[in-house]
Amino acid sequence: MNVIEIARQLGKAIQEDERYIDYITAKKYNDEDEELQDLIGEFNLIRQNLAMEQEKPEEEQNAEKLAELNTKMHAAYNAVMTNEHMADFTMAKAGMDKMMSQVNTILSHALNGDDPLTCATESACSGSCSTCGGCG
After folding, report:
1. Residue 58 lies in a domain
2. Least CB-packed of 13, 25, 64, 136 within 10 Å?
3. How many domains does the chain have?
4. C-beta contacts of 107-111 below 8 A and 24+ residues apart
5. Would you say the pTM of this structure is higher than 0.85?
């Protein structure tokens, strides 16, 4: 069996994993939740208006409008994030992200010559490459 075939098997195993199934299910509910989609649209519109106001030269910016848009944006964000489907999606995505991080950590260790069967599955990576001595 070659590496590509094994990668395909890994992809199939990921799709059969409970975390993947939970993620796909939560994503579907998000996509089908019209109220949530409206909230996301409202949030994006407010964010866009805020960005347009912030892009103006400082002397042309309206401080009251900036404050109002910022308040509205935070309220819209909270409405999105407290939606039941978004909360479920956020949890499911965290599970998927953790699983994929573990897979990537094992692969990184293997590429550095470590034993993929016994190496750590949790990365010590801080996310900042500027202070890193290299992966592995």
Report:
1. yes
2. 64
3. 2
4. 108/135, 108/136, 109/136, 111/136
5. no
